[in-house]
Write a structure and sequence with these properties.
With 427 residues, this protein is α/β, with parallel strands linked by helices. It has 3 domains: 205 residues, Aconitase, domain 3 (2-Layer Sandwich); 92 residues, no CATH class; 107 residues, Aconitase, domain 3 (2-Layer Sandwich), CATH 3.30.499. Helices cover 43% and strands 15% of the residues. It contains 16 helices and 15 strands. The strands form 4 sheets. The protein has a 5-stranded parallel beta sheet, sandwiched between helices. Strands 4-3-2-5 form a 4-stranded parallel beta sheet. A 4-stranded parallel beta sheet has the order 9-8-7-10. Helix 5 packs parallel to helix 6 and helix 9 crosses helix 11. The longest helix has 17 residues. Bound molecules: FE3-S4 cluster. The site of FE3-S4 cluster (F3S) has 16 residues, from strand 11 and helix 15.
């Protein structure tokens, strides 16, 4: 999820347009643009392309990019109507009048499951607006699979490919685990890249900004998505967005790496990390080093475990659950009944595989619910639940800061046990 970054770029662009018309008149003078790009900027290819080029060139000039480069894949955040509001919807519907994407483009989670929103308690009024947002994207040719793990459903770039993604966890995963190259885009700039097939050449597209500057020595064994999330929190808070080289992790599953990517991006703003013997990018090994101890991991877990709350909401799938995570949940829930609201958030194509494999039937018979296309953070559920239990450090951060819910972090096994506990009677 990219709430902050999306709004940040959106506001920056509006600010520039309103108060610095001079800059916009001269836009494109500082960057080397091809003939085609200049024509795009002048409006030869329509209004949406013109507006998109204005955004990309303005960003490029702010960040000192010498030129635009082609991208092969885009992932757009800022999809939930809860975050976009009326102004965002109007912005998208204007672009959809003549804008069509040039490259493979998918969406971040929306504010609701597009097919099953009633069962999750989403109002009809919200659903109407959310569908209008999705329709605008669809009109532009965006594939409307709403997921923060596009790399699990076919929007999977190769090593060294330039892309423009906006979901922070996916950005860290793409740069670090896949070895692709992307900045952490805001929603409007990612969409601008989709409509032009371009992005400015700066930041994490350049070798020099991908090199590790700090070595992190992990002195304790890390296992499980909740503990990899805690590790991301500890490192993120220590080094913020500085690229790091992590040693001491012997093995990490895809699920653990996606949890870690989400957490280091949330708590530190990192767009790239390197993990010895695990991630593929080459980097120099920095001299400056920091140590992460078992005590620090325990402290981070304690901070995400608020004692004074009784869990009334359990959620797995932040970032969106893989089919392996769903298979594990089916195994754990087989023959049981959950007593609390339990959401498994995942991409719709992954849910379809779960249907085909029989996992969905087991999970739904136990009373847990799938929430495809959305998640427990972007759905409009503020105030509905008092205490969320999850295995995601990122989920904890936003449940507390955005939805003002209390939080508990635990392993998936313990989440299932928690969900099956009888809630205490409220007097
Ligand atoms: Fe994805 Fe929502 Fe978590 S967008 S990373 S499931 S907060």
């Amino acid at each position: 999820m990219m709430i902050k970054s999306h709004n940040f770029y959106f506001k920056k662009i509006l600010f520039l347009k309103k108060f610095n018309k001079k800059l916009f008149k001269k836009i494109g003078e500082k960057m080397l643009l091809t003939k085609e790009e200049q024509e795009m900027l002048k409006g030869k290819y329509g209004n949406a392309v013109k507006k998109s080029m204005e955004i990309l060139v303005a960003l490029g000039e702010i960040y000192g990019a010498e030129k635009l480069i082609r991208v092969s894949s885009v992932q757009v955040a800022g999809v939930s109507y809860d975050n976009l509001g009326e102004s965002g919807l109007e912005y998208l519907s204007n672009l959809s009048k003549d804008g069509r994407v040039k490259v493979l483009t998918t969406l971040n989670p929306a504010g609701m499951d597009l097919e099953n929103y009633e069962a999750l308690g989403i109002s009809e009024d919200f659903a109407i607006k959310q569908k209008m947002v999705i329709d605008s994207f669809a009109k532009m040719g965006v594939i409307t699979t709403c997921t923060c793990t596009p790399y699990l459903i076919g929007n999977t770039p190769n090593f060294n490919q330039h892309i423009a993604w906006s979901e922070s966890s996916a950005v860290a995963y793409a740069n670090s685990v896949l070895g692709a190259r992307t900045n952490r885009e805001g929603g409007p700039s990612a969409l601008a890249s989709a409509l032009t097939g371009r992005t400015p050449l700066y930041g994490l597209h350049l070798d020099e900004n991908r090199i590790a500057k700090i070595k992190i020595i992990v002195k304790t064994q890390i296992k499980g998505t909740q503990n990899f999330g805690a590790l991301g929190k500890v490192i993120g808070e220590k080094i913020k967005s500085t690229p790091c080289y992590i040693i001491g992790i012997n093995e990490a599953s895809m699920e653990e790496l996606k949890s870690f990517s989400a957490s280091i991006a949330t708590y530190g703003g990192a767009g790239i990390f390197h993990m010895e013997n695990i991630t593929p990018n080459k980097t120099v090994i920095p001299l400056e080093e920091l140590i992460v101890t078992k005590k620090e991991i325990e402290k981070a877990l304690n901070e995400m475990n608020m004692g004074d709350c009784e869990v009334d909401f359990v959620s797995v799938g932040c970032p969106h659950a893989s089919i392996a995570e769903i298979a594990k949940l089916a195994d754990l829930l087989n023959g049981k009944k959950v007593k609390k609201e339990f959401w498994i958030t995942t991409a719709r194509p992954t849910k379809k595989i779960a249907d085909m494999s029989g996992y969905s039937k087991i999970i739904e018979t136990a009373g847990a619910k799938f929430a495809s296309d959305t998640c427990c953070v972007v759905a409009p559920i503020k105030g509905r639940f008092k205490c969320l239990a999850t295995d995601s450090a990122k989920g904890c951060y936003y449940a507390y800061s955005k939805n003002q819910s209390k939080i508990k972090i635990m392993s998936v096994e313990n989440l299932v046990k928690e969900a099956c506990k009888e809630p205490s009677v409220v007097k």
